[in-house]
Amino acid sequence: MLFIPKSMIEDPHYPNIVLSFSYRGYQIELDRGDWQGQEIYTAWVNHDQGCAVAVPWALTRKIALRQAKNWIDRRLDSVS
Q1: CA distance 35 to 18
Q2: What is the pTM of this model?
Q3: Which of 36, 64, 68, 78 could form a disulfide bond with 58, CB atoms 3.0-4.6 angstroms apart?
Q4: What are the structural domains, with CATH classification, of the chain?
Q5: Please, which pLDDT band fits residue 9 given cuts at 50, 70 and 90?
């Protein structure tokens, strides 16, 4: 049985996509939120087979974008 804490139900996190763009055939979406008063960024990568959280958290938008692009580059390099 799946247990979902009551706090998650009362205060769900809705994505706040602040930037979205294509990179090498993938769509990167950058979500801005906060954790314990600190602004953080999460990068989602969408592709034809689904989506993934490429960067669970980063302290700046620049770091999140660089890590998301690196995530895509590693996937594409491993295929070729």
Answers
A1: 17
A2: 0.80
A3: 64
A4: 15-79 (3.30.160)
A5: low
